[in-house]
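does this look right to u?? pyridoxal-5'-phosphate version
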Amino acid sequence: MKNQFDPNNLIRENIRDLAPYSSARHEHEWNDGIFLDANENAFGSVSSGKHNRYPDPLHRRLKSAITDITGVPGEQIFIGNGSDESIDLLLRAFCEPGKDKVAIMPPTYGMYAVSARINNVEIVELPLKPDFDIDIEGILDRVHSDIKLLFICSPNNPTGNCFAPGKIETVLQEFPGIVILDEAYIDFSLQRSFLDSLDNFANLVVLQTFSKSWGMANLRLGMAFASREIIDILYRIKPPYNINGPAQLFAIEALENSALKDRMVEETKVQRQWLIDELQSLPLVMKVHPTETNFILVKILEADKVHRFLASRKIIVRNHSRSLYCEGCLRITVGTHNENRRLIGALKEFNHSI
Ligand SMILES: *Cc1c(COP(=O)(O)O)cnc(C)c1O
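got this back:
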C-alpha cells in the first residue's frame, strides 16, 4: 500500500533551501549548567513562578510522553500552538501563494479556509453530500496536481459525523498531495484513529488537539503526526519557541493522568445522550443530527430567533444556519448537566412564547 511520495517534491522552493534558526537550546537539554548564551534574566522573574528561561524548542519531554500513549515515535510528532499553527505551517511549507491550491469539504471547520486566505492560497471546495457524507467520486474527479493539500475533518465539525475509513483510505491512495486528517474529536467517537495508518500512507498528516477531550484549550496545544520527512519540515519553519514552558509541563502532567480524560469523555457521552433525548422531545426541533463529537447539530424552527433568545438568556450556541446544507441549524456543545438543563429549560420557554 505504501505509495511513492516524497514531501520534498511538493515543498516550496524558498523553504527547501532554508537554513533554520538555531539556538543553543536546540542542542542542549540540561537542567544544570551556567546558561550565559541566551541573554535571559539570570536573577528570576518579576511574575510569580519561575519563567526566566526559554522553553525546549524541540518539545522533547512532551513528545516522549505522547509516544508513551500513542506509540508514535517522537520524530513523527510535531507540537503546534494549537492545531491552528500546524494548519498554517503546512500551508506555508507546501503552498506557493497565488499559485498553489488547497481543497476543503464544506461544511467544515472554518480555520482551513481562513488560514488559506491569510496565505493567499486559493481554495477549491469539494462539498460533502447533502447527507454530510464524503463525496468520493466528486473528489476524485476534481483533484489536480496544483492542489497541494486536502483537508478532511473526521469526525467533522460542524456536522458531527465520521467518514468511513475505507473512503478516507481511497482518498489517501488517489490524491497526489498531502491529506490532512483532522481528528480533533476522535476521542468522542467510535471510529478508529488513523494514527495506526501513518506507516501505510506517506502523504498522511493526522491532527489531534489538547483543546477538546483533554480540556486544555487555554494552553493552545495541537499535535500533528506524519512521516519523519513532513515533521522535519514543520520543525524547520516553526517559530523557535512556539510552545511555552508551562504548556509543555501541563501537557506532560495531563498525559500521565489520561484516565481522567477517559472519564471526562464518558461523562460527556452520558450528557450528550441526555441532551439528544431532550432535544428530540421538543416540538421546535426538526432534526437532531447523529454525532460522534462533544457537540450536536440541531435543525430547529426559527433558528435565528432561537439563537438570539438563548443569547438574551446568556446561553451561547453557534448559529450554523448559513453553512452549506445546514439551513436552520444550531451547533450546541455538550455542557455539564446543570448547563444542559438550563439550555433545555430555555428552549421550552421559547416554545411557549411562540
Ligand atoms: C476545535 C477544533 C480544533 C482545535 O483547534 P486548536 O487550535 O487545537 O484549539 C481543530 N480542528 C477542529 C475541526 C476543531 O473543531
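The longest helix spans residues 258-280. idk if thats expected tbh
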